[in-house]
Amino acid sequence: MVDNHMIHKGRWEASTRCCHLSPALEPVADPGREGGMAKRANKGRRNPYRPGQVLREPVFSDPGHNRRRVFAFVATIIPTFFAAWVAIFGAHLYFVDKLQAPPRAALPATAFAEQADAEGSTAFGVVPQDVCETSPYPTIVPRSNDPNLRVLPTETVFAFLPYLPETTYASLETGINAIDVLMPEWFRVTNAREGVVMLNREAEHQVFLKQVIDRSFPRVRVVPVVRVIHGSLPANGADWQTLVRLAEDLANLAVARGYYGLAIMPAGIESSEMQAFANLAALLDVALNAHGLRSHLLASVDSPLLNKHVLIEAMDLVIVKTFRDPWVGNPPEPLAANDWFNARARWAIETVGREKLVVMLGSFAVDWSRQAAAPERIPVADAFRRLAANGGKFDYPAEAGNLRMRYETPSGVAHEIWSLDAASLYNQLAVLSELELRQVGLWSLGFEDPSVWPILSVQLLNPENAARFIAEVDFSDFVGYEGSGPFQRLTRSAVIGKRLVSIDPESGLVSNQGFAPLPEPWGILRYGQPAPDTVAITFDDGPDPTHTAAILDVLSERDVTATFFVVGAHVLQSPEIVRRMLTEGHLVGSHTFLHPEIGDKPLLRTLFEVNALQRLLEVVTGRGTLLFRTPYGRSEGPMTGEDAAPMEVLENAGYVIVGSDVVPPDWLALDAQEIVDFVMKTLERSGGNVIVLHDGGGDRQATVDALGPLIDRLRADGYEIADLAAMLGISRDQAMPVAGGSFALLDQVSFGLLRAMSGLLIGLFWVLIAVGVVRSLVIVMLALGRRRHDPKAGIFAPPVTVVIPAFNEELTIIRCIDSVFASDYPSIRVIVVDDGSTDHTFERVRAHAARVPGILVFHEPNKGKPVALDAAYGSYGGIDTEIVVAIDADSMLARNAITLLSQHFADPAVGAVAGRVRVGNRRGLLTKLQALEYLTAQSIDRRAFERLNSILVVPGAIGAWRTRAVREAGLYSADTVTEDADLTVSVIRAGYRVVYEDRAYAVTEAPETVRQFLGQRLRWSFGMLQTAFKHIAGAARQRLFVGWVALPDLLVVGFGFSILAPLVDLILIGTLLDLAVDSVVGRPERVVDVRPHLLFGYALLPLMDVVLILVAMRLDRSESLGLLLLFPVQRFFYRQLMYFSALRAMFRAATGNMTRWGHLKRTGHARLSKSN
């Protein structure tokens, strides 16, 4: 039996027995030199490794701080130069001279008058005489408690949403909070026998509408409108079965889509069709009510349908349009004059009843002119645009209560506009309040005066707050157009106006109004209309090295010139393609540098996008460009103020903005014939002059295949193919002026660096992928090819000393010792080296040693783990066994662990055996992620590197050492903070083998908080970096695999990947986010090249990681497959912590900021069980 001794503060405290040390294993005087035992052990065999002197300072130590000062200098100089370059080059990109525009004669004169200065003026109108010019609001003297001066809130607000124009979504988003029931125009009946026609819900503006509606559901009820077209129904109500089937189909559609109900509306129905319409409406009411849905009749106040009392009684609600709807032959007149509206509203209440009636109020304008056969219904905002653009005048006849505008075009055509604006709507609400009607509607979204929304939302409306609510008139989200042609020019910027109203003190109604300044929306002129049979072929989103080159070949074969709107990022990658475009006579236009949706970007970003590309084109081709097309632009042009605002910046920079007439969706899965058919049908149906195809941003092979047949078809049908310069009436040199300037060298160098950096990143990306994949495959093959160790138990069982260094381990040390003595190994002695603990570790072990024989305990001043372990070997001569098992104080050994480890030492070539470490405190996500990491690192890496005798770490938690090998390697060294790794490599270099015993395991306590984890991994990473730098050169000179394979692998994969791998993850995350945004906003095409081989490259590394985990689980069947579910978190969260720790370690190595052996605060949560 081994005697029990305790050492306290350097003095022996002996028990009644004596301790005997083997003379053959006396501690050497200098563990850094090869002692006599090592010489005798090496006698007669070649040992190329001689430890020699211990290093004076730890690896990377910088006592004089010289390296830190150099690093600080470099870290200051490089960012300073970089910041200076960014500042100079950035300023050069943001602040450029205006482009040299073509001669004014080449461009059309605007159809609009120059915008007048509206600040502080009331130009263009007849100013009401009773408006005080010194106050923004009129003086109002209401009669207190007069019900006429109180407008009660409406209970329900309906809103009609027409299918067109596309700008309706902007109005819906503005007014959605005031709307209770939305009535979108989604269905039509054009032939009752053919059923209902659903309008295209996949159109871009309809997709936006759906997003707004979904956000407000279920508060806003949706009641789609079914417009029944003239001629669609059987005369006099015949063909009853057709009507029944149509009504049932509509009801089923409403049920399937979750609508609140349906509204049926006649459109041009003649008297012979009235009965059939009434029958259909009644049948629809029955069908809807059967499913618990509501029926709505939507008709004009003058419609004969309102006289069909049976129909009115049947419908759940009747929505009456109380405004005129002028048509051919109607003279200019108020749309809902005060007396006319009052009379119609009272009649509607009498006819329908208050409970069932919804009064639909108009908010739109109608423009009459001598030249037009029929009056034109226009938005209120467009009425003000026309008024301002032509210097017209307005007035507000009190008897009408509608706004009237008059103007004359430059060609002498007189126009008269009547408008229902917010003032008119307030008056009508006041009348309806007096009539105690609480259900109103608004006709129609996209045409309304935006000032109506505040007064539809307010809880209590009186003349005073009404004047305040309707005072601001903001048309900045509306864009009005004039002219025709493929080019667009901003003629007017939006102006927020102020409405000044006069209130009749008797009635409480608005009696007059003026504006100071006059509100205006954005105005855009379309121009450059060529002959109808002239078309230009243009391409967006290139250049692409494959598809654009093929397109240029087709164009060259057919002698056609085209215009390419290029993306700067792609020009940077393929400048030779752009140079070829110009060489072959094509035009190049700007499509921004990074292809953002510029409408929602700051104006400075827009400047950067166009200026950066302009400078790049000048570097690549020696020419600039005047032509610009907006990314993700709609064929009609900007639809909202957000989209129109960048035009001001672009025009100030001198660009000619090009629109798009015919845009086949070649970014979708169309084949070549479908692309050709789309273009030709659009030209035949709608006309147009500019065809837009896409040569970049994805797989454009279908576009390449379609181009030749399209050109042939266009020529066969008599179309002339011209370029945009010809359509503008300018020369090619004017469209693409020769570059000049004093910063050409700066541009050339800067873009050259950017291209080189881009190429370097792409190259590093593929190198990273290749190295990662090849390494994973090699590691897996080596691990699977490893021969399983199967020593026969009981044959080799020499005495074993278990050494346990401890520092403040009072929670775990006794369990650790007990797990050792619970081993099935026959001869064990335990040495505990207390490294200056400040808790009760030493006292607890000493008390335990008094009860349990076979324990030696030493107490040393705190000098770190390496010194504590060396003390066990040398200072006290406590080790007299051939085998030493070293474990941490929180480890708990499996019962057969020591037996399995010791069997390997029957082979004299084995110097150390690494056991397997399991996480024993799997209480949270972080500890489970560490368990997953341990699984692959041990089951795969250690098995693989054992084949090459290149295991880098015999873990401190469980490892066995041949005492002789440790002494020959120089004992534990303080050169690194990972003394286990340092000693492992030293043992290999001393001529021994290090093997792995996967069946011998210990459980240990892993960090439970991120802070603890980062502290531990900083020490590990820094120590492994120290170990690599200490041994790599010597091991390589010895021609050991550890020097040629394992340590370079550590530096490349463990540390090099820490710099590069996050870039791959960021690229992947950015790409996925970009794709997600595209899917949400419905962008028509992608420009960032997400090609299959790139996506495959992105997926390879995670795929190989999954393979490694599966192989590890196959080799270690004790682990649950549930750990695999943590892989996404490991990949995108845990691994980033590992990268961060490696980067911190490299930074400390570079600056000489040393990391010391630390201590993990124990919780005592680790448990030894089969689940570990």
Secondary structure: elements and pairs:
Elements lengths: L4 E4 L2 E4 L21 H7 L23 H29 L61 E6 L6 H8 L5 E11 L3 E4 L5 H13 L4 E2 L2 E5 L10 H17 L4 E7 L6 H17 L3 E7 L8 H6 L2 E5 L16 H15 L4 E6 L2 E5 L6 E3 L1 H10 L3 E3 L7 E6 L5 E6 L2 H13 L4 E5 L8 H6 L5 H7 L2 E2 L5 E5 L3 E6 L4 E7 L6 E6 L6 E6 L6 E9 L4 H11 L5 E4 L1 H6 L1 H9 L3 E4 L12 H19 L5 E2 L12 H12 L3 E3 L13 H15 L3 E5 L6 H16 L3 E2 L2 H5 L3 H4 L8 H42 L14 E7 L6 H9 L6 E8 L5 H11 L3 E6 L4 H11 L7 E4 L5 E2 L3 H7 L6 E10 L5 H23 L11 E4 H6 L10 H11 L3 E12 L5 H28 L3 H41 L10 H24 L11 H25 L21
Parallel strand pairs: 3-4, 3-17, 4-6, 4-7, 7-8, 8-9, 9-10, 10-11, 11-17, 19-23, 24-25, 24-29, 24-30, 25-26, 27-28, 31-32, 31-34, 32-33, 36-38
Antiparallel strand pairs: 1-2, 4-5, 12-13, 12-16, 14-15, 15-16, 18-21, 20-23, 20-28, 21-22, 34-37, 35-38, 36-37
Helix pairs in contact: 3-4, 5-6, 8-10, 13-19, 16-17, 16-22, 18-19, 22-27, 22-31, 22-32, 27-32, 29-30, 30-31, 30-33, 31-33
